[in-house]
């Protein structure tokens, strides 16, 4: 249920909060050094110190705030919780509705460059007949979307999205796309509402249930081994966020330098940047995302999907029977083979991308927009 139609939204961080952030940054107490070089033990101390200094005394939040407010943003109350969204109306005679869902540690801003390409293809040399009505919600507990009451959260996010798209915005039939957490939301949305979801396009596939005697191909066994190796070497953040999120959240909600260090290490590790983060994200890009977490105090609630999935939803997966496309980027967290995806999805398009990482909508919006356009062209 929803209370009323979307209400226009704009952001205005009080000056007192901005000054408090700068004060905290200027008073940062850095950790005692350990003799591990660069990024080998986590966030590089020199990079963090440089970004802390820039965040405190060079970063122009008001310019970023104005850019955010230039986007057509709205809020709507669904089942007692506020949902924030960007809505980009498509050009051409019959734009196809699509909902784009971000992941962690991202925000809705990651998807706006992609969204503009989808809504206005003629700006980028495309055909207006391929345009989309683009809806980019903030996940519950991220940025300006409120966390849901109840434990576990009800209704689940994919049901919020269906209410938003079908009941609030009036789309009988629409597409869905997402990566990371957004891939899971989009997949569950397609599984729950095949009558409304024309197709789903994802950057990550939900793992199929595998029994001990399951017959796997060589390619699938290699994928399972890669997942295990990645989790052993890179998955500490996920284990913490799944098992003891509030312990970590106390530190990150109080220290902007700690918040920066926790997030920036993931941006560097998960991008196709050759270890040079600035090749994929400018300092302003990074600090705008991190500032949204800080000013909205949502790092704790951004951990909630990890903890709830760990506690309640591990065995809740259903096969997706609507047409599915997946774009596999070489520097994303995993690269599932086609047969692996086919175990749980009605796969109709499988694209191996030449470059790009976990934040593909920001890193390679042109490649991703082209793949989305081609996939949904047959489903309009």
Order of helices and strands: EHHHEEEHEHEHEHHHHHHEHEHH
Strand segment tally: 9
Strand content: 5-15%
CATH architecture term: 3-Layer(aba) Sandwich
Main attributes of the structure:
single chain; about 375 residues; alpha/beta; nine-stranded mixed β-sheet; 15 helices; globular
Description:
- With 380 residues, the protein is α/β, with parallel strands linked by helices.
- The chain has a single domain (7-377), classed as Alpha/Beta hydrolase fold, catalytic domain (Rossmann fold, 3-Layer(aba) Sandwich).
- Helix content is 44%, strand content 15%.
- It contains 15 helices and nine strands.
- Strands 1-2-3-5-4-6-7-8-9 form a nine-stranded mixed beta sheet, sandwiched between helices.
- Helix 13 links the parallel strand 8 and strand 9 (345-352).
- Helix 1 runs antiparallel to helix 2 (45-57) and helix 10 packs across helix 11 (283-296).
- It starts with 6 loop residues before the first strand and ends with a helix.
